[in-house]
């Protein structure tokens, strides 16, 4: 009588089944390892770690739009800033609960994204790029002029974040803020992975590659693009709200073209259209920035620029694509 083998009869088969069903990758272990290492480096690294995690969440939201949908934008910081201001204003009016504050920021940005997306997605290419650029300038100027609500150039002060679950109070060293940011990042990363491998994710990549053919086979191109635009705005607002809660301050830089350009550079550095690229890019950029600014407070931007130009020349598809090419070459 033949023996039927269970898919879990060996550890190797079990790992393959787990990898196939849940898309567990070796990079996931490295992510968890990096998150665990930061507290071991010392208390002064909590702030940098939190800054990196916020930037990664923001980059993931942009990657969903640029890398997976093919909609290039220069105004993504508008949604980041809206989320930050929404959470900050809610706190100023007596609601500082951190988890619901994230939702408030995300929903506010999603609502703005719905309106903005319905307008800009009617265009394409250069026109779309300019409209997104106008969006961030418009919202930045609104934040600048509405001083009674946003604080204008002085920023939004008096933000108070309540303890997480009523137990873990945000401390001066930033330990609770770091762990809270890490938890939010892991949830966002898991949701993003699920999304890009879902039927919706596969369809938007088909639209990105050939919108004409996708429309010809019956895909609703613009509604799907708008849906992803709103989801991307929600995640960007989530990142903005997280930064407002952790830093307890929101300023005009959080809704500026400079921030839009910086996060786009981070994504290009890591590689768009790959989830790990949206993680590697901000990590490399911000760690290099922190190291160079301490070593050379005057000329650090020059050296950072040289590093970025070198990476672009030798890794035009981003660091993740460079790693893939090296892996493929070593496997031959």
Automatic annotation (TrEMBL):
Compartment(s): Cell membrane
Membrane topology: Multi-pass membrane protein
Keywords: Cell membrane, Membrane, Plasmid, Transmembrane, Transmembrane helix
GO annotations of cellular component type: plasma membrane
Entry annotated with the keyword Transferase: no
Record-linked InterPro entries: ABC_transp_permease, LivM-like
Transmembrane regions listed in the UniProt entry: 78-95, 101-121, 128-147, 176-196, 226-244, 264-288, 300-324
GO molecular function, one term: branched-chain amino acid transmembrane transporter activity
Name used for this protein in its record: Branched-chain amino acid ABC transporter permease
Record organism: Shinella sumterensis
Lineage: Bacteria, Pseudomonadati, Pseudomonadota, Alphaproteobacteria, Hyphomicrobiales
